[in-house]
Each structure stands twice: as structure tokens, then as C-alpha cells.
Amino acid sequence: MKISTSWLKEYIPVTHTVEEMANKISLTGIESSPVKLGEELTDLVVGHITSVIAHPNSDHLKVCQVDVGESEEIQIVCGAPNVAKGQYVIVARHGAHLPNGVRIKRGKIRGQESNGMICGLDEVGVPSQYMPEEFANGIYVFDDPQKPGEDVYDLLGLKDEMIDIDITPNRADTLGMRGAAWEIGATYNEKPTFKKPELNQTKVQDDADVTVKVAEKDLVPDYLLRELKGVTVSHSPLWMQRRLWNQNIQPVNNVVDAANYVMIEYGQPIQAYDLDKLQDKDLTVRFAKDGDKLVLDDQDKVLDKNDLIVASNKEILGLAGVINGKTAAVDENTKNVLLEAGVFDGATVRKTAQRHDLRGDDSNRFEKGVDNGIVDEALLRATQLVDQNSDATTISKDIVGNYTKAEPTVIKGSINHINHLMGLDLSSDEILDIFDRLGFETELSGDDVTVTIPTRRWDMTIEADLVEEVNRIYGYENLPNTLPAGMETRGGYSKKRELSNKLRDILLGAGMDEVINFSLLSKKEVEDFNTIHTEYTKLLHPMTEDHEYLRNSLIPGLVRNVAYNQARKNDNLKIFEQARIFDRPTGQARPNEVSYISGAVSGDVVVDSWNTQAQKVDFYYVKGIVDELLSFTNSDATFSYEATDEYKNLHPGQTAKILANDQVIGLIGKLHPDYQKSQNVSDTFVFELNIDLLYELNSKNVKAQSAPKYPAVTRDLAILVGKDINNSQIIADIFANGGKYLQDVNIFDVYQGKNIQPNHKSLGYHLEFLNPNDTLTDEEVEKAFSLVKESLVQKFNVEIR
Q1: In angstroms, rounded to a whole number, what is the distance separating the alpha carbons of residues 386 and 723?
Q2: Any idea where the domains of the chain sit in the sequence?
Q3: Overall fold of domain 42-156
Q4: Which of 321, 364, 370, 678 has the greatest number of beta carbons closer than 10 A?
Q5: 265 labelled binding-site residue
Q6: Is 733 known as a binding-site position?
Q7: What does the subunit section of this Swiss-Prot or TrEMBL entry state (predicted)?
Q8: pLDDT tens-digit readout, 442-486
Q9: In terms of Cα–Cα distance, which of 235, 229, 219 is closest to 285?
């Protein structure tokens, strides 16, 4: 909300600079910043065009003689299509400065001298979308005669000073100039004064043509109308137009502008209808039916049964509290007007505006709340302005669809308790004075105080709100500095968080980059990697279809990251994410949040160089990263990998479950070629681990031991085995039969092809034996080695080579 200081002066004295006022308001808890319009503008004056002739060397330029208050008229060449003799216009004289560093200089245009520029509003700083539509493609023309040579800044509000306040949801009372005047006035101990709107009572009549019905009274506690007949629709006065475009509202006509002006003045949205366009002269506030259509200028909106609407018979006039359609819009032919002021349920308005992507000034105010104590006065003010600017012949009294008497809130508190909570020792008079500055009525009885809160401050309900108000106005900067008292809590991470941080550091040390993705996915993405077989958790009101569901895996987000980078020729990627996924068991209302760590690797893991050849990522490279992670968990568990083809979007021949003591704790694998093609990514390997399950594993005791004093003995073993036998099975059996001195087993050769039996493979293993307390003999080693070979032959029918 932008608070114009020139407008604010109508309510309270303004003697401070806009910078000082913004700083002072910020100290009361409402963030504010100063805005100075048109600081760069110079030499802009009113010009009176006395003659216009065609340019001799152009078919669209005009040569104008313009009176700018000097001894002689000046000549200006202008190309605007709407330039004409007799107009009062904006002239930038020679040497003038315009926005964006533009400077006007005297010169010749196609041989004709031009001593300045006749300007449009957009050329002097008014954004084009907020200009009156009739001047969108031409110069601005004043409706009334002005004094040539007079500065245009005040006339057009080009150098208005404003305070831009950042409204929090609980302070919607400052979304109107009057509410802002109370807030700023309290800050400077100045009570605002307001003129109560009045009508020409000779025009007010009892009868009305319109009947109104509010079908949803619980959602519409107040709904009032007034008829104005015999109006003349034309331009609004300039003072109103300039205040509107400085509030980022485009002037339309004197009826619509009056409604918008009151919205800014009171914070109460007002709607206007062409009375003659209503079917049967009736209005109903009700829910729409599925499939109903609202006709707007740019498109039609298809409504459903959850949309609250204003209708006339079968015609839908608008979405209540959101937007009006074009069906009964006020235009230049309108003669009779119906003005509407109401209070609509904030939640209903918000959901409707969000559903149809129509959030605006009206819905913003109803979402946050409006003062139901000034609805009738705001309607009276709008009626007054329309009558003043359009000279209505007759005006109806209030037509009531629904009315709820606004009652002030009464809060009881204690002077001592207020002081105690603030850490101050203010007297009762000082505290009561603060309440009085805010416009609150008070009654003191000993230490007890009863405060009556006006309806404009509907955010206040309990004693703590009184304490906050005293704090704000007294000044947070004036509160005494004290150290906190009481028990201290030692900071630090939980054990689970420490494990998560350790895993993160390991991946960073491995050269991987951390990413952070949204926790919301599309329906297809949650279906693609539902590896934990959970129920999907859908948002009631998602932002978009791509953000409908809480994620059940981190892999879809990583795949998006890979696709984004590869589309930009960044092919070599090693990324990971540590975050929570959402697991909702069947029948459970809320999902469980589970900590996961996932990674994705694609492209080359070793780049091509003078002494190295490029190496593509493969399954075993990523498995090495996972092994490194698991080794640092210090878990007293046996980790293993089990080949699987149950994950539809992972390659069935290069995918495995990760197990800890036969419990699945994650997965590793290559993306399926079809899935890679659909996501526009090249070969990519991924892994995912459940941190919560890793944390639950028992820790093992680590004991330091001295370096071995005796040498190790090695044996190599080559076997021919069926191709369906896994390496992990062979190694497990070797350890099971190798005896207590077998220290390590490594596979060093794998061969399939020529000179090998069909469906078989040749594997080579390196076995290392070590006795830390004595020198091993060949007899001891050969005995263990023989047991290993015998077991392999019996269990797997291998051929020792």
C-alpha cells in the first residue's frame, strides 16, 4: 500500500520528510520505505496549442505553435495522432529531463525547427498500463483549461512523495488511507480528522427498482446497494485520476473511478453495475452451478459450485469479492447506476481468486479482512463522489441484502501486567495516552483497564494485543536492554542430524555438488519412483499441476536437474540431495517425514587429458560412492546388494536393492533407457538411501590395533562358474570357509566370450591371509585354500582353473 503524503495531509498534519516518516513507521513494526516520484523530472510545463499545420515533409507529423507562458510562442513538431488546436498539453521544454535519462534538446525534425516535446503520460513517468485508455497511443490532453507555463508536477502528481508500507496479513486496516492515517497519526501523536460524507437530500428517494437476495448469509454478513439515476458518464476530475494512477489503478470513468477511489480511501471495495443491463432488476448473491460462465473482457471463466457469485436472474455479473464481468459493466452509454458494498468471507474469496487466477486489489482486501463497521459509510462516500462527478437526478436509500451490526471488541487488561510483559514501568496515564492516540476508548478501575477497540482494528482480541500496541507506539527502540534469565540449553545437533551431516560431507568430499529441490511433484513424477509403495499425498490447493503431490522420492528432482544441465551442454554431473520424503501408509491421514540422501551421476567421471583417457560413469563407480557412504555409518551390519528388476524406470540389468542385515535401506541403478529418453537425459546412474533406517542400525565398537608384525600370504583363484551366480555369493562363501586368517578377498578378473563355455564366466580372485601373532605356514594357508575350493565346487559347481 502506497501512502501519498499529499493525500495524508487531508487527515493529519505532515511536517516530517518522507524518509523520516518511513523510518519511524518501520520502528513500530510495519516495514516501510520512502518513494519519491519524478525526482529526475525538470522543465515540464502546461502548453496551449494555438495552431496545428501539416509537416511539409511528412504525412504524419504536425507543426504546432505552443504557448508555454513565455513572451513568444514556441514551435514543436509532434507526431501524436490526437494532437489538435486548442488543447492544453504537457510540454517538455528545451533542456528538460525525462525518466530513464532522456533529455530534450532543440533541433530540427525533417527540416522543421522543434523547441521541445509535447508529451504523453508514459513519457513523463506514469506507467502505460495505468494511463487512461484514450491516451494510450498519443499525448495527454487536460480536460479543463490550465495556465500556460505552469508546472505540471502537482497537477499530475508526478512528484508525489509516498510511503510504501509492507502490509502483514494481520494489519489489513492499513490497506486504506483512513486506516493508515490512524496508524501514522498515532506514531506522531496526531489524531486524524475525517469529513463524514453527505448527500444532497433533495435527490434521495425511498423507492428503488432493484430487489436483492443474499442466499449465503453466513458468507456475506453485509451487503448494501444504492441506485443512482440520470448520471452522465464521462472523465473523472484530474485530482482523482492522478491519485488513482499513483496507486497503480487505471482511470476508466467517473463511476468506476469513484468506486476505486473509495477502495483506496476506506479499504472497502465497491462495485458498480449498469442498472439497465440487469435482468428483471434483481440481484442474488449465491453459489454458482458447475459449468456456469463469467464473461470477462479478455476471456471467459468456467465456474463451479464452490464459486460465490453475484447474479441477476440467470446472468452472472461477477465473482463476489473478486471481479466483475462485462455483462453489466458501466460504459459511456450508462444512465442508471447500481453501487454495491459488501463483506465477503475471506477464505471463500481467496480460494475462488486462486482457482481462477484472478487475485487483485478487491480480493486482497477481503482475504485479509475489511472493517464491517464502515460498509454503509463507504457506500455513502462512493455515492457522494458519483453524484458530484456525474450529477445524478435521483438517489435511492440503502437497499439491504444483509446487514450485521458491527460491535467493537472489549479487552480487559492490567497496567502492572502490561508493564511486566514489556519490562517497563510506565504510569497508567502514559499507557492510557497511547490507547487514546490509537483511537481506543479506555476505562480505568484501579489497576484494571478495559479497552474498547473500534471495528477497524479487528486484529485485536486479547490482552497480549494491548501489550503489542503499547510496545509499538512507545517504541521498540526505547525498551531497556536486558539479558535473558533462566536455564540455558546447550546447543548442538541431534545424533540423527550429525549422521546426516556426516553423509553430506562425505559426498561433498567425493566431488559431488549439493542441490535443493521443491518437495512438490507432479502426479506422474510420484508414480515414476514410488519405490517405497506409499499412498500419494495430494495438496488441497496446489499452485500448479506440476506441484500437486508431496514427493515420495528425491530421484525425480535430481533427474530434472540433470535434464536442465544437459540441455545447456553441462554433461558431466555428480549431484546429490539430502532432504525429506513423505511416506503415507494406507489409512493414515498425515504422511511420515523420512530423511533420505540421494545422488545422480552422468557423463564422464574422468575427463580426457594428455595422460588419461575419458572414463564414463558406470554402475560400479556409483556403487563405490555408496560403499564409501555406508562405511562411514559405523554400523554393526552386513551391507549387501540384491539385483532387482521391480523398479520400472530403472534398468533391469543394472539395478540393485541395498540391504542392511537383509532389510532394504535403498537402491542403486541406471535409469531405464525409455525413461531417459522421455526425460531427455543421457546415461545416468542414481542411488537413494534411507537415513532414518541407517540411524537405527546398531553401532559397532572400533578398536585400534597395531600394524601387523608378520607378512601376509596371498593366493590367486580362477574359477569357471555359471553366469547366473553373483560375485557376492562367491565372496561370501570364500569368507565362510577361508578360516580365521583370511583377511581380504578381491575380484581382479571377469571374462566371458571366446574359449568359455556358453552361459559361463571366468572369475579371478585374490585372497590374502594374515596371522597378526605369528608367521603363517604354507600348510595352514593351503589347508584353508583347499576348503575354499572344495566348498565352491560343491555349492556352485565351479571349475577350478
Answers
A1: 90
A2: 2-37+161-187, 42-156, 204-402, 409-478, 495-696, 713-800
A3: OB fold (Dihydrolipoamide Acetyltransferase, E2P) (2.40.50)
A4: 370
A5: no
A6: no
A7: Tetramer of two alpha and two beta subunits.
A8: 999 999 999 999 999 999 999 999 999 999 999 988 888 877 777
A9: 219
